[in-house]
């Protein structure tokens, strides 16, 4: 991707806030970047995080069968997200299945421009924080908010929390 955009390793490293050596190690498969580093590299390349993991589909896929999406595990190992479509190319929404172990969360508030988020709690509990307000969600609860508002989440329950989470436009 870097070469197709005619960027040198140094150019990409500078744009992504990494060292040239680290970018080289990632490209050679020697280093495994964190999700936040991969997002910065994606931003520098003008792509979304999921573009690193999926192949372009030649034909529109209407159905995604079990196991055909892909999973991103958070580095702490306490959370993961599953993309519920094969590709985000040309799509306006990013549907995810998010799984949070007890204690897992966003580790602070964040925001992103121009979008909206919707979620439905399938199982477990999740505290959704929007600015300075905490919403305690349980199985069957849903939420909808503007992504520009600082937000975060944490599973303070004793079991795994599963949430169908839809982000528009796609951000991962």
Can you tag this structure with a few keywords?
16% helix, 3 helices, 31% strand, 2 domains, 9 strands, three-stranded antiparallel beta sheet, alpha+beta, 434 Repressor (Amino-terminal Domain), Jelly Rolls, 172 residues, six-stranded antiparallel beta sheet
Structural commentary:
The protein has 172 residues and is an alpha+beta fold. The chain folds into two domains: 45 residues, Orthogonal Bundle (434 Repressor (Amino-terminal Domain)), CATH 1.10.260.40; 99 residues, Jelly Rolls (Sandwich), CATH 2.60.120. Helix content is 16%, strand content 31%. It contains three helices and nine strands, in the order αααβββββββββ. A hairpin with a 2-residue loop joins strand 5 and strand 6. Helix 1 crosses helix 2 and helix 1 packs across helix 3. The protein is globular.
Write the layout of secondary structure elements.
Blueprint: H1 9-16, H2 20-28, H3 35-45, E1 70-73, E2 79-83, E3 94-100, E4 116-123, E5 125-130, E6 133-138, E7 142-146, E8 151-154, E9 161-168
Antiparallel strand pairs: 1-2, 2-3, 3-9, 4-7, 4-9, 5-6, 5-8
